[in-house]
Fold this sequence. Notes:
This protein is α+β, with helices and mostly antiparallel strands and 553 residues long. It has 22 helices and 14 strands. It has helices spanning 2-27, 48-51, 57-67, 87-96, 105-115, 124-134, 140-144, 147-166, 174-190, 205-217, 220-233, 239-248, 252-275, 295-305, 314-345, 347-360, 369-373, 376-388, 434-438, 441-444, 462-467, 489-506; strands at 70-74, 80-84, 101-103, 171-173, 394-399, 403-412, 418-424, 429-433, 471-473, 476-481, 507-511, 516-521, 523-528, 545-550. It has a five-stranded mixed beta sheet with strand order 1-2-8-5-3, with helices on both faces. Strand 6 and strand 7 form a beta hairpin. Helix 5 (105-115) crosses helix 11 and helix 16 (347-360) crosses helix 22 (489-506). Residues 278-284 have low confidence and may be disordered. The protein binds protoporphyrin IX containing FE. The site of protoporphyrin IX containing FE has 23 residues, from helix 15, strand 10 and helix 22. Its cofactor is heme. GO terms for molecular function: heme binding; iron ion binding; monooxygenase activity; oxidoreductase activity, acting on paired donors, with incorporation or reduction of molecular oxygen. Heme binds at residue 486. Its main location: membrane.
Amino acid sequence: MLQSNSLQALATFTLAWVTWRVLRRFFRPDPLADVPGLKPPSWIAGSLAEIFHSDAWDFHDSMSEKYGGVFKCQGFFGAPVLYVHDPTALRYIATKDQSLFEGTDDMILAQKIVFGPGLLSTIGSVHRKQRKVMNPVFSTTQVRALRPVSYDVAHELSESLSRQISQGMSTFDMLDWMERVVLETTARGILGSTFDALNETLNPPYLVSLKNFIRVMTFSEFIFPRLLILPYICNIGPAWLRRWLVDVLPWKNLHVLRDMVDTMHNTSLELLRSRQGGVDGHKARVSDDGGRPDILTVLLKANLAASEEDKMSESELLGQITTITFGALSTTASALSRLLWVLCENPDVQEKIRQEVSDALKGGRDIEYDALISLPLLDAVVKETFRVYTPLPLIVKQSTTDTVIPLSKPYLSADGSTFSEIPIAPKTYIVVALSACNRDSAIWGDDAREWKPERWLKPLPDTVTNAKIPGVYSNQMSFYGGPKACIGYKFAELEIKTIMSLLLSKFRFSFGQKQIIWKMNGINQPMVAADDELDDFGLPRLQMPLHVSLVND
Ligand code: HEM
């Protein structure tokens, strides 16, 4: 009886809430009325399924061609959503004032629950305070000091591949190896620890949780509850009660998610405790082995030295460990995998980089930081691959207040007139199309979608410099820009160049029998076309089998 009353109450509440969400749209003027846009295929989910579809490559290119840098679409229950890649608009969103646009409420909440109060889940003054302590920790000076660690891990990868080749292996899942090498480099360079991730017989639980997390979070069964229910229930009762509810709910994948979160949290806690002399994050002594500096040690020391008002609490420090490790893993592994893929597509360029790297390696010693970062062809290939195949093609922000987004030029409105700015109501979702900006032909020319590393070997066209793209990296949006830009992009660049230079000096990569295709799973990821191999979730397995042989064979 009690159960049926509760269900009735829940159904009534849900119906009332949906009705209110729909009706209020009819009574409020639509600030995006002038902006042309898509007709949604579904009233409930709007155009979200099209925009976030894993095969939406052509969709994004064709929308960019049809509308230029901005168009309107619909989210859940008719909510207006702005899709934007106009560079002036992006500059405004990313850099004008950090508090005008934040992550969406639901993502901020979900990330806070999963990662704790790290950079991805804090907003406003708390985020600003955290970046103030953390920015210097990720400076070029700190990253430069990590070159030997990065090379150590790359050498171990290379030895492992060589050993297996000598035992007769010729095909390797390079996505798996890239994830392993990135996790291990992060472990040693950033966390001052090891996960033994290059041991191919082990599957470190931290790696499994971190790499599967986005896949599970984006299961359709979680999207509605995350958007519609989580905000209302996340603060009900004490934490133990919410945990008990999660434990007793007969929902298999929720338990999978719970176990991932537990693994991430417990591993980060262990790492933090092992580094601190005590458990009190404010007063703890920071212990390191006096050897090579790692970022966590530097961060803990910087935190101890920070003023009382800027200091991060233990839960914030814990949140940073999980956030950084998560932020580093799938993105960098995607970029490395795409680089290998693109060099299999272009074996002549692969050969030229091998030559460049081998020349720089003369004397057999690892390449010094400045020389490595500025190897011209390797640099051009890395930049072009990020531009054309942006690992994180879309991010979503939300306006916090009424504002007006300026545009780089007038656009044609739905009624044939033009508009040069867009008024935005609070809580409007903005799809920030990083990839579309990187591939915009108005900026990069008619061949914008072609992979041409040589464009970086000569001065960039005026259209690129004049666009004043707000990205922190090389006139592109791949690492975003402004106060919320990727904090680890210099580390990612070092890691990518170390691993690529070493691998290419020793191995030749080519496609095997199986065709590789790429999916937009939030982060771009490879898999085999028409393969029926499934992963633990019953989904097509993410993988990139490549043929690998020794250069000196
Ligand atoms: C190829 C590699 C990478 C790519 C393409 C990438 C891309 C991005 C992008 C686009 C953002 C902005 C996300 C948003 O605002 O929603 C971001 C944020 C972030 N990234 Fe990266 N990232 C990469 C590697 C790394 C690495 C190696 C680390 C850590 C060592 C890292 C840590 C973070 C963190 C902590 C944030 C949140 C920054 C903040 O909000 O203040 N990322 N990254």
